[in-house]
Specification:
single chain, 122 residues, alpha+beta, Cathepsin B, Chain A, four-stranded mixed β-sheet, 4 strands, 34% helix, globular
């Protein structure tokens, strides 16, 4: 279920980037077509450009807490705000992003049924 959601979001962000190169092309370190091909590769991680595309596509503000000494947080604002919700992320500089949630607001994930084990010969 989670993998399906991740895939759906990835397709949505790819479409956002492909349909609006005028918003994002100046911020990628290579030819834009190459960038689109790179980010569509299975297992490729997102970057600051995909975060901006996410903010724009979903119309939400993204607030990133960073490990940078001089910039402890970054606000990514959508072109048009469609929701008052805010996505909170942490960013370990140039390594990895993680989602973070205010205490008591953890997302509800679908739980998998545990396998039952029986003791034999006991």
């Amino acid at each position: 279920m989670l993998q399906d959601l991740i895939l759906m979001i990835s397709y949505h962000l790819y479409d956002q980037l492909k349909l609006h190169p005028e918003l994002y092309a100046a911020y990628v370190p290579m030819a834009y077509d190459e960038y689109l091909k790179k980010i569509s590769t299975d297992g490729e991680w997102g970057d600051h450009v995909t975060l901006q595309a996410a903010a724009d596509a979903f119309g939400v503000k993204i607030f990133v807490l960073t490990s940078y000494k001089d910039t402890c947080y970054i606000e990514i604002l959508p072109c048009v705000q469609k929701s008052k919700r805010i996505i909170f992320l942490s960013f370990w500089a140039e390594v990895h992003y993680n989602s973070i949630y205010p205490e008591g607001e953890l997302p509800i994930m679908e739980s998998k049924k545990k396998k039952k084990w029986w003791m034999l010969g006991g």
